[in-house]
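Example S7 (structure tokens).
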């Protein structure tokens, strides 16, 4: 059976298990301390549970961040290198075509482009 407390502020009567007077809100030291210690214990338990999970979550988070960074670097490199490579390749093809046209105009064959046979 719970004890009845008389509020020192308003004189109201209430059960000891209540933290505050239901009439004026004045707190009792003992009940408030019990509530505080209960909340503190809940926090301690939560921290213990989180402490066991934390390294795994941190490692997962770091790995995910590194993976995203690598993907971003690869995409950026591809965006920079691919156009340059395509430009160089196009220039090489153009130069090769001009070279072949020049040699053809000069009457010089390259490789096996033209084969002519002469009767002797």
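Recovered sequence:
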């Amino acid at each position: 059976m719970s004890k009845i407390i008389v509020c020192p502020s308003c004189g109201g009567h209430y059960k000891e298990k209540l933290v505050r007077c239901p009439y004026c809100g004045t707190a009792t030291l003992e009940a408030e301390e019990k509530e505080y210690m209960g909340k503190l214990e809940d926090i301690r338990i939560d921290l213990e549970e989180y402490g066991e999970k934390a390294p795994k979550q941190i490692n997962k988070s770091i790995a995910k961040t590194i993976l995203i960074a690598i993907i971003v670097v690869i995409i950026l490199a591809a965006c920079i290198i691919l156009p340059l490579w395509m430009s160089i390749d196009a220039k090489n093809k153009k130069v090769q075509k001009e070279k072949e046209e020049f040699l053809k105009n000069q009457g010089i064959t390259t490789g096996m482009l033209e084969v002519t046979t002469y009767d002797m």
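Notes on this example. The CA atoms of residues 17 and 109 lie 107 Å apart.
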